[in-house]
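Ticket #4471: structure output looks truncated?

Reporter: J.K.
Steps to reproduce: submitted the chain below (118 residues) through the standard prediction queue, then opened the result file.
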Amino acid sequence: QAQLVESGGGSVQAGGSLRLSCAASERTASMFAMGWFRQAPGKERTFVASIRWSGGSTRYADSVKGRFTISRDNAKNAVYLQMNSLKPEDTAVYYCAADLYGVGWSRWGQGTQVTVSS
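Returned output as attached by the reporter:
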C-alpha cells in the first residue's frame, strides 16, 4: 500500500507563509485525487483543499480560498499546499490524504503541526 509522508509544518506569526509537502511512497495508477485536511484541538477533522490527479482541478474550503494553493507533481507522486496570509485560526494538525479510484479518502499521512501565533 502506498504510504503518505508529510513535511513542512512549523510555527509562524500571523500573516506569514508555510508550504506543506506530501509524497506517496510508491506510484499508483489508481490515484484519483489528493488533498489536505486539518484538525484543530478539540474539533473534528475538516476539509481544506483537494486536487484531481488527472486534469488538476482543485477545490478549497471557503475559509482558505484566496490564501492557500494546492498543487501536484505527478512525476514525484507529490502534492503541496502553499499557505499564505496565515491566521491563528489556521492552527491545526494538517493531514495529507489520497483518494484511490474516486471512492473516498482511504490513505492518510501521519499529520504535521502548523501553529500560527498572533
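Triage note (M.O.): checked the attachment and the full C-alpha cell line is present. The mean pLDDT is 94.
Status: closed, working as intended.
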